[in-house]
Amino acid sequence: MIDCERCPRLRAWCERVAREKKRAFRDQEYWGKPVPGFGDREARLLVVGLAPAAHGGNRTGRVFTGDSSGSWLYEALHRFGFANQPDSIGRGDSLRLRDAYVTASARCAPPANKPTRAELERCRPFLAAETRLLTRVRVVVLLGRIGWEAWLRASGWWERLSARERPRFAHAAETRLPDGTLVLCSFHPSRQNTNTGRLTRAMWHDIFRRARAVVDGG
After folding, report:
1. Other CB atoms closer than 10 Å to residue 129's CB: what's the count?
2. Domains (ranges, CATH) in the chain?
3. What is the DSSP pairing of strand 38-39 with strand 174-176?
């Protein structure tokens, strides 16, 4: 996956960002390649986001690492027992996930955080492969509408369920799929949502409190 060249626009953007860098990280070597998922292969919790940030995952080489969204995510995972520490700085920071796996709809950082539909479709096989391999998942947390649709399509549920039967997207909406998997939807912890109060810490923690309860048999 890290050698993928299917999306010329995204590859050119990621490589440009890696060359030019952000002033705060000018002494660091950027990853600049597609970013793989991260976590426990025996996970019962799967979290699906949008895409690596230009100076986050595209810099560090680990999904949701080195940016504010990652700070929100890993703090919550740690709070509810899915991570051994509450923050994420880089691939060598000793972060370990327990019973959780984190991935994204697109593996390359897109300009303005907006991958095209065609780019998402070309990236979908990677998410589909992860979904097949993570055979113990009981709860899927889908971040934002893009993460919601990407996972439903990658997992095959989009086609198997009618429009009426599909999980709806709304913050804290939850749906039990026919195989027993619980789908939990959340606003994405982007600055656009967290800085405006559209997504608060309490709202965010409620998502992972519920995920913890279901994973534990609740």
Report:
1. 13
2. 8-215 (3.40.470.10)
3. unpaired
